Amino acid sequence: MSYNVLVIDDNEGDQFLCQHAINQYKDDVNITEAYDGQQALEILETLTPDLIFLDISMPRMGGFEFLEHYQDRFGQRQTKIVMLTSSMVEKDLIRCKAFTVVGQYVQKPLKTDNLIEAMANSA
Fold this sequence. Notes:
By secondary structure, the protein is an alpha/beta fold. The protein has helices at 12-25, 37-43, 63-74, 90-97, 112-122, and strands spanning 3-8, 29-34, 51-54, 80-85, 102-107. The radius of gyration is 13 Å and the shape is globular.
């Protein structure tokens, strides 16, 4: 059985690094890319991933706005979200914890131990 991951990040380099880390850890993962929150919400109309990696700062629709829409529209899903961000600002961490769908807050780049924990918590 394959595992589905949605990576939401506007930076192509960060997309690549995240996908590389996932593929190094587990090879039967289907990875879908979204480059902002709006594109991700459109993808989620037809896809229910096992895990979502979400950046905070993105154009058009950033991570927090995405979380608000996601929680309203798809919050009943069992999908866990990992905030994968370069922001280590305390107020961002506190704001993320207000969303029950957020399981982890991780600093970029994605490290193997964070990936193992995220995949274990979403299984």
